[in-house]
Amino acid sequence: MFFRVYDEGAVLCSRAGRSRPAAAGARWRGPHGTPGREVHLLVRGIGLLKRLAILPIVGTLLAGAALGQAAEKLAPYYPTPEKIVEQMLKLGELKPGEKMFDLGSGDGRIVIMAAKKFRADATGVEFDEDLWRQSENRIESLGLESRARIIHGDLMKQDYRSADLLTVYLLPGSNDKLRPLLEKQLKKGARIVAHDFEFAGWTPETTKYIEDDGQGRSHTLYLYRR
Questions:
Q1: What residues have CB less than 8 Å from 9, skipping those under 6 apart?
Q2: What is the pLDDT of residues 178-213, one digit of tens each?
Q3: Three-state DSSP class for 54?
Q4: Which domains does the chain have, with CATH numbers?
């Protein structure tokens, strides 16, 4: 994506990063003469301060594009019923003041219950921007900012060394990718509760089967301890 700012001395930017003054009516063309894909920001007759005001917008767009390319979606969004959320936190023996992380936190329901009902220090990690904003707004509306927050980012690039409990609802292949990171980072005694899908190579300390979540669906929870 190319952003060109035009004023009296217009400049055309090439893919190689070089620039040259543009002739009147000139258009950048791609390889073999094909039209380049471009976004024109036409800025004529405005002062330096107005030009600088554009830069945060450009930065936000570029940062969002970079995040989308760098992060990998490890599971589809499928909200866990509140009844199962509570069972996961109980199985994980979550205590007041403990640090817990929910990996792929969706709308933030696990983080919110952990902070509100269990009085834990709760952090979610969510890649989807809409879900991240939704969960942050709900945390703020409930006045839980001191005990709950959501990180907008890639769950494979976070630091979990302080975690007492992690909750995970990811696909089996995603659990396989996550396991080496948790083995490297988690402190002795840290607990992991996995929803429906096990971690290959780990033996659960406890397996809990829930026949009906109130919506006619069964669930299996796995508790692991480092």
A1: 21
A2: 999 999 999 999 999 999 999 999 999 999 999 999
A3: helix
A4: 3-70 (no CATH), 82-225 (3.40.50.150)
